[in-house]
Amino acid sequence: MDSSGNGQLLIFSGRANPPLADDICKYVKVPLGKTVIRDFSDQEIYVRIEENVRGKDVFVVQPTCYPGNTNLMELLIMIDALRRSSAKRITAVIPYYGYARQDRKCEPRVPITSKLVADLLETAGTDRVLTVDLHAGQIQGFFNIPVDHLFAMNVLIEYIRKLDLPNLIVISPDAGGVERARAYAKRLDTSLAIIDKRRDIPNEARAMNIIGDVKGKVAFIVDDMIDTAGTLMEATDALLGAGASEVHACCSHAVLSGPAGERIANSPIKSVVTTNSIPLSDGLKNNPKIKVLSVASLLGEAILRIHEETSVSSLFDSTRE
What digits encode the pLDDT tens for the residues 291-302? Predict the structure, then answer.
């Protein structure tokens, strides 16, 4: 796999999501690179790369999910180790890009942390970034290096189609998600409704009005992430109150922090479909309402195409059939 002139393809993984990295390696048909990663007693992170990476095309798989600060720092340290070991090219494969919600100054004296993370990745020695469903597409512009932005929509839509739900309607949980929901509705050949919500403090929102007719329909809420599931519960109640026969949801990233698992388990929502960009905690793995789909083949195919210098555009075109 070195015909491109980039050197041999190697894939390494941090500790954030080893099962996903293993599945990617199976798709790409290369063994996972050997590393030693451990914590000192004061929680500083030690990394040693146990492979010769000189002149190699290296990919590091590490979502910056919970614990986000630790996983981000671990990724930066791995990249620094690879750069100092003379890797030819280093691609950070970040299935879930943390701090993406802090992408602009929405009030005085607040940071733009997603830009800070981009700067840190570049300073560490990252040559390229591969990610899935950024919370805000403009984050790509925070980088001065190439960013391949994939969409999990194709994986999720394939599953939704197989459910063959009657009277399906796609729901955007807020005005900001309308473009995403419209793409789902177009691909599923169904109608679209929007929930008008108001957010007063972080992680809490209250659903207000529903724009569209959901009476007697199966509502499928689509979002990029579900965090505490507070918004999801408000949306579910609002839809059922407006006459929807049942409610499902899907997202690319199952952050599912705090009370999310309990809320989903005890709510009237029928199912929550997500991907393995973030590993589920042990307490959520047995939740019968949560269905996890794999994005390993999507990421694996992108890695192969990046390594071979062929087109990746068909993978991140969210409108393709």
Answer: 999 999 999 999
Angle between helices 68-84 and 113-124 (to 10 degrees): 30
Convert the pLDDT of each residue in 238-275 to its tens digit.
Answer: 999 999 999 999 999 999 999 999 999 999 999 999 99
Q: Positive or negative CA dihedral for 294, 298, 299, 300?
A: positive
Cβ–Cβ < 8 Å for 137, 100: no
Pairwise CA distance, residues 308 & 144, whole Å? 22
Q: Judge residue 9's burial from the number of C-beta atoms within 10 Å of its C-beta, 0-12 exposed, 13-18 middle, 19 or more buried.
A: buried
Q: How far apart are alpha carbons 157 and 284 in whole angstroms? A: 23
Determine the Cα–Cα distance for residues 319 and 244; give it in Å rounded to an integer.
27
- For the purposes of burial, counting CB atoms within 10 Å of the CB of 75, is it exposed (0-12), middle (13-18) or buried (19 or more)? buried
Q: Which residues of 40-54 are buried (b: 16+ CB within 10 A; e: fewer)?
A: eeeeebebebebebe
Tokens representing 265 are 């388990």
Q: What angle do CA 131, 67, 275 make, to 5 degrees?
A: 40
Residues 6+ apart with CB under 8 A from 302: 130, 148, 150, 312, 315, 316
The residue written with tokens 């505490």 in the block is 228
CB 131 within 8 A of CB 90: no
Give tens-digit pLDDT for 176-191: 899 999 999 999 999 9
At 298, which amino acid appears?
L
Residue with tokens 């491109």: 4
Distance CA 38, CA 267 (A): 39
Rg (CA), the chain: 20
CA distance 171 to 191: 9
Q: CA 92, CA 87: separation in Å to the nearest integer?
A: 13
The catalytic residue positions are 197
